[in-house]
Amino acid sequence: MTSPVRADVCIIGAGLVGCASAYQLAKRGADVIVLERGWPGAGSSSGGMGGFRQQFADAVDAELVRASLPIIRELAPEALAPRGYLFVAETEAGMRELADGIEGMRAFGVRVRMVDQRDIAELIPGIVTADLLGGRIGDDDGWGDPRLVLERTVAAARELGARIVERQNVTAIRARDGHVREVESTGFSVVAASVLVACGAWTADVLATCGVEVPIWPYRRQIARAGPFPALRQIPMTIECESGLHFRPRGDDQLFSMPNLTRDGALEKAPTSRGPAAPLIVDPRALSWTRQKAAARHPDFAALRFAESWACYYEMTPDDHPIIGAVPEVEGLFVAAGFSGHGFMQSAAVGACVAELLTDGVSRTVDIGDFSIERFRGARSTFSPSVL
Ligand SMILES: Cc1cc2nc3c(=O)[nH]c(=O)nc-3n(C[C@H](O)[C@H](O)[C@H](O)COP(=O)(O)OP(=O)(O)OC[C@H]3O[C@@H](n4cnc5c(N)ncnc54)[C@H](O)[C@@H]3O)c2cc1C
Question: DSSP state, 15?
Fold first, then answer.
């Protein structure tokens, strides 16, 4: 039996959240080890759309995004394309939903405006607007490259001395006398004063090994890539409110994010229950739906041929917001997971918040108190639903 490895902080999971936390902790001089069962980005972090927006109903969401952007720009300036994040609506109800939030967002400093058919046609040359009543765009929003951000974050964390160890499946977190003691993985064990669980969609399983329950569960989402469409290289991230279809450029190509279809073929814009996770394979019906929907939205998208498609999990919570902070029943145990589709845009700042919490006992970059696990244990969540 090898003797345990020692560190100030052991982070479980090398996705965007775990690696951003490792980077920020290492920057503050902490001795950090990250245990990852696959490789950095093996979970959801390399599979997302990379959209970022400050258009949220809750100010703290926008604050996390706003605090993330400078950190990302420093690590990977070329990873962000601030070309706008556009919601378009086909119905009065959709338009009302978009317009309702706008004053609130402006009150916390978000540059957001309603747009009409003509504006949309200027933003996306050739788009079919006849069925659209209008939309809403965030001018400081856009999309980025999550893989590049992760790659640079890993490199920066390693440069500062963080150990990111791949192929270490964590099998148990051990606690004694109410204090976290040891993390066991398939290769070795780690003794650390603090343990951060950042396992995305798998966080509940990992925390269950020390008897802690958290309401985080996986929800499959699917993306396909097609192209080239060079004339659309500069368009905003675009989301149809009613159908949930998103598209945005990746180089000359476009990525299409597809909603799930229920067994009887109905559109499922957001998870309806915490049922068992769908396997990570792409549903051919979603590809056909996307071909049809995209063709109706833009003539360049007629007869789309997908070069690749993939599925990965959103890490859902009951109020579509992450759980960030201490686990009260086990001293030294922390969690940062459950980003419900927003983990790319918020993770860089979350890393800073976690590092402040673990080293100074309080997060200053953004007040993360509302993300406490306590909101699901009697206290009430104050957040607005916010999946797309
Ligand atoms: C299709 C799709 C589109 C998305 N689009 C956007 C978007 O436009 N904008 C946005 O902001 N966000 C988006 N997201 C969400 C974003 O990708 C995630 O919120 C984010 O990547 C979560 O990062 P994470 O580090 O928490 O989790 P992950 O990246 O999943 O990392 C968790 C890591 O933990 C590891 N792990 C799990 N169990 C163990 C164990 N027992 N031992 C060791 N390691 C373990 C996993 O292998 C994994 O690498 C999207 C997600 C999906 C699926």
Answer: S
